[in-house]
Amino acid sequence: MKRILLAALLASSSTLAYAEGEPLKIGFMATLEGPFTVLGEDGQRGFELALREADYEVAGRPIEVIVGPTDASPESALRAARKLVEQDEVDIVIGPLSGSEGIAMRDYSKTVPQVTFINGISGAQETTLVDPSETFYRYNMDGAQWTIGLGDYVFNEKGWEVVATIAEDYSFGYTNFMGFALEFCRAGGDIVERQWVPLGTKDFSSIIAALPEDVDALYLGLGGADAVNFLNQYLQAGGDANLIGGTIMVDGTVLSSEGRAKEVLIGTPSSGPQADTWDDPNWQGFVTAYQEAWPPEQRFPSPSLLATGYYNSTNAMLAAMEAVDGDLSDGQAGFRAALASLELDAPNGMISLDGNRQAIGSNFVTEVVQMDDGTLATQLVNKIDGVEQTLGLTSEQFAELGLPSRDVVDCTAWQGR
Amino acid sequence: MADVSEAAAPLGRFDLTRIPAHIWVIVVLLLLVPTFTSGFVQFQIFGWAFILGMISLSLMILAGYGGMVSLVQMTAAAAAGYAVAIFGASAVAEISFAWPWPVAVILAIAISVLVCVISGALAIRTEGIYTIMITLAIGSAFFYFTRQNYTVFNGFTGFNGVQPPQVFGVTWNDPTPFYYLTLACAALSYFFAVYLARTPFGLALQGVRDNPRRMAAMGYNVNAHRLAAYAVAGVISGVAGVLLVWSTGQISPNTAAIGPIIDILVITVIGGINRPIGPFVGALIYVVLRTYSLDVLTALGLDGERFKLLIGMAFLLIVYFSPDGMCGIWDRYITRLWRDPKREGADG
Description:
The structure holds two protein chains of two kinds.
Chain A: H1 2-14, E1 24-31, H2 37-53, E2 57-58, E3 61-70, H3 74-87, E4 92-94, H4 99-109, E5 116-118, H5 126-129, E6 136-137, H6 150-157, E7 162-168, H7 171-187, E8 190-197, H8 205-209, E9 217-221, H9 224-236, E10 242-245, H10 252-255, E11 269-272, H11 281-293, H12 305-323, H13 333-340, E12 344-346, E13 349-353, E14 359-370, E15 376-387, H14 395-401, H15 411-414
Parallel strand pairs in A: 1-3, 1-4, 4-5, 5-6, 7-8, 7-9, 9-10
Antiparallel strand pairs in A: 2-3, 11-14, 12-13, 13-14, 14-15
Chain B: H1 2-8, H2 21-36, H3 39-65, H4 73-87, H5 101-123, H6 128-148, E1 166-167, E2 170-171, H7 175-196, H8 200-210, H9 212-217, H10 222-248, H11 258-271, H12 277-299, H13 307-321, H14 325-338, H15 341-347
Antiparallel strand pairs in B: 1-2
Helix pairs in contact in B: 3-7, 3-10, 3-11, 3-12, 4-5, 4-10, 5-6, 5-10, 7-10, 8-10, 11-12, 12-13
């Protein structure tokens, strides 16, 4: 009897589900446990900042948030998403944070067409390139797009022609390296040695001992605790080579770490979706809002790209929601159309989506500088607009390049093309 | 006193009339779960709990019957999961053979047995903490190896798009079919473990646990019994591994990382390491805590970030108040219930 009553209640409420004032349920996913916890927490700050600015309300509908913590493994992302969608019955999921999680979400989103997924900041290329999902939208560029401009800059401006690389042995490591290597090799550079280290490496001594002497620079594609560990040991070993940083190597999470090791990074060119000290008023406004929203000990000196990514995704959701006046009753079709055609005026430049619902945006080549207060930050060197997922290649060239892996890019094959 | 022994040892005699009422209630409730729960609860709570319970059960057989605390059971299950992805079909077409599913499943279980037997062969000559260390070392070696090997295990990303087969026109990873599939496998493993304790082999194994020297003197081959126990445990963890990869559709090194390896031990300990039902009770508690602790904290108006603390504290409390886990708490409750004034004289 209770069941029948409940069913009747559900049936009657579903007709009213999208009425004015009905709460909008948002599922939030980020790495709130495991190795990327610090990154996940900054992602959450970005997400909350956008909602605070909207007063937790969109088109007259109050916003209800349900958090799904993950640990960067695809399995944990899947379990968190299943709970959000099947148990809490959210309308929209914002997340995940990490590359392999994104691929798992692409596959999962195909099985639950009633829910729209907006990527948090995960950057694996396959997520929107191979067999993309109709209901998965990504307003951040992938790991390869984040390196556009860097290869050119170090070859042409810095005059570094021969490099060796050390990067993390997983999908984001490959993707991030691939974009750099492609441009660097096409400009005429040569990569003489590639070292791949497992995620979570603590002891880099054997790798540092094996570093070649006769190269112009070292490319470092490490992140989080690995990056800090490497820099510490590199400093102790008396390393003084020119460095080139991957996107998460010079992120706020590393630049705000304790100790002197990070100072090795001063002057290091890098690239990514933002430059900390960019003087654009929109960007500066975002930085100030972030700094004012939390006391200094509860945040980074300046928002990391994770905070920016989640902030943009959440704002995209809010904007599309406003566009359809909070109405999702058409199976979210109108909302999705609004998402697809959205031109997001984000703090880090204009963002629009391509046919695979993948971001086309601006990329920033930066150098690490020391600020007056002693903290480190990234300073803008060059900004490239309209960076597409195909990295400026024709579709045949892009197919020839192959999916990111240890051996992509084959440097000799692309030299001078 | 006769009543007590009847209630405490109800199963395995194949006499339905001797099964006490509360067991019947549990059986009927388990069969009816899909009528009053959502797909999420069936799939993500019960399905996951049954799978973790089976993996923990394989540890319970080794630890409870054989006195060998093996941390290699999660690894064996993950090896089976990898075998399903490699021999069967997955989204990583360059590696997967896409053989028919019965072949993949049989190979998967065989590989799980192999992993257990090889680990067992290395570990059976040791005792206590040394067994734990050796099996943990094998588990972490497997974790790091799968993460760095790309030709067979596809490295960090592992395999995705592993779908259960369509048999009898049923999509087996739909919540209700999957619930019954895991329930059936879990029930079979459970009754097998109950039965095993009373077989000559099971009795000899418990003898080996209690006094290996005396058993050896009586002519039992101690090491062979221990090794055979590993093989038996490998079958159960293998089946669980197949179900695990079907439930999540993917497998990656994280499935058998150090965290999940320790989780299996925690589940077995909080459930009760001496009885086959213990692992399933422990798994259900673990899954419910994992899934809902964050919601509980936020509902109480507390900071959700500390949800792992709640899980840890719950485990600590259970183990503190009952060193033999939830089964021990249940036993004491039953004993107290039976010690009413009328029986006091007869029992005392």
